[in-house]
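$ ./design --mode recover --in tokens.txt
reading tokens...
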């Protein structure tokens, strides 16, 4: 059951699109995206590593997602996505 609503910033959406378009294995990017979304929705407050600026980072090869958790609203916003 989802505890959090997962959203992406426009920048993160653009980054993911670029990664997918240039990826040697697009299926791996698609799978990682689905896994990340499920895990973030289930327990974003407990996964990844915290950073000083309040963001968290979550590694789901071949992607790295940077996200922020709003506990009050139960929303997770992915703010940046990079390719490992």
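writing sequence...
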């Amino acid at each position: 059951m989802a505890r959090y609503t997962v959203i992406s910033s426009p920048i993160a959406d653009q980054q993911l699109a670029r990664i997918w378009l240039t990826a040697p294995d697009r299926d791996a990017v698609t799978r990682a995206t689905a896994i990340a979304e499920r895990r973030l929705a289930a327990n974003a407050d407990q996964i990844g590593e915290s950073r000083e600026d309040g963001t968290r980072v979550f590694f789901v090869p071949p992607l790295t997602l940077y996200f922020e958790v709003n506990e009050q609203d139960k929303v997770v916003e992915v703010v940046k996505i990079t390719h490992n």
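exit 0
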